[in-house]
């Protein structure tokens, strides 16, 4: 597997340092996620980095079933951030079956990943 570079590396380095940041286009002012070199909205090549509010809404959710010996069941979801981007993550601190579409969530960083808790 190739080591990340460019915007992806910048994103992962920020997470490793405890910062959740997404890109924002300097031309059209729209937010961008997953990190890119060119704005997918307007094609401009000037994308800056901003700290999102961390507020979001569960768009879609599923439960991945595992044996208890393998860590048990967990949630995988798509979250729409208040800034208008969607990201794949998980909701923690509640049973995976309790995560519902439309649920308000708040981002946090854990072990170099963005995960969500109920808001």
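-> sequence recovered:
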């Amino acid at each position: 597997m190739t080591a990340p570079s460019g915007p992806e590396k910048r994103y992962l380095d920020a997470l490793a340092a405890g910062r959740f940041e997404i890109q924002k286009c300097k031309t059209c002012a729209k937010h961008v996620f997953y990190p890119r070199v060119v704005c997918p909205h307007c094609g401009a090549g000037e994308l800056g980095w901003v700290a999102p509010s961390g507020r979001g809404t569960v768009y879609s959710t599923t439960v991945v079933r595992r044996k208890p010996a393998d860590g048990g069941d967990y949630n995988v979801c798509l979250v729409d951030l208040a800034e208008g981007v969607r990201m794949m993550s998980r909701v923690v601190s509640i049973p995976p079956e309790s995560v519902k579409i439309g649920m308000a969530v708040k981002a946090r960083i854990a072990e170099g990943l963005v995960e969500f808790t109920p808001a």
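The helical segments are 6-16.
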